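Re-run with default settings, no changes from the original entry. Doing this only to confirm the output is reproducible before filing.
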Amino acid sequence: MARMKFICDAERCIECNSCVTACKQEHDIPWGVNRRRVVTLNDGVPGERSISAACMHCSDAPCMAVCPVDCFYKTDDGVVLHDKDLCIGCGYCFYACPFGAPQFPQDGAFGLRGKMDKCTFCAGGPEPDGSQAEFEKYGRNRLAEGKLPACAEMCSTKALLGGDGDVLADIFRTRAMARGKGSEVWGWATAYGRPETKPGSSGPQEKPAPKAPANASGGNS
């Protein structure tokens, strides 16, 4: 069984925002709601990177755990979806999500925010696949059409990938071997790690190069 996942290569993202635009156009997302956004890390300093962020469709999704009306559910492909007819707009999912994925169309407290909206992995909702009701509430169901999410398909540098997690792992393994930089192939230390700082410094510092051992000159001693 496929496990649908997103992953963004921070070494390839050029912050063009085509993924954001593709998502809004494909699903007719209302103004003020962004299911996907591009985040810049270490802005203006050496090591600056950008990543495209949205719902990561977690295996153990915290939004599902805190929802008081159980409006979240998971498909057989591992996509985390929600039922807007059950959502009460309490906002618990917003505070529980580490990626800030849940969005609300209105300002205000609790139910005044309106029904929650988030990335669906272009998999629609509980309504019949391809129905008008499904499109009006959740957008186009591209997965039912055998297509990839619009954001990943639009990415010109292939920084953002979406699909079977095993296939994505093979792709990134190939990239890692080509670049030969270990875990830095994905820019994960910048995108997801904590930058190192020195006392009195205002920004992240590069790690010093490791010193070679005394017998590293090629001798046999």
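The first helix runs from residue 18 to 27. The chain is about 25% helix and 10% strand.
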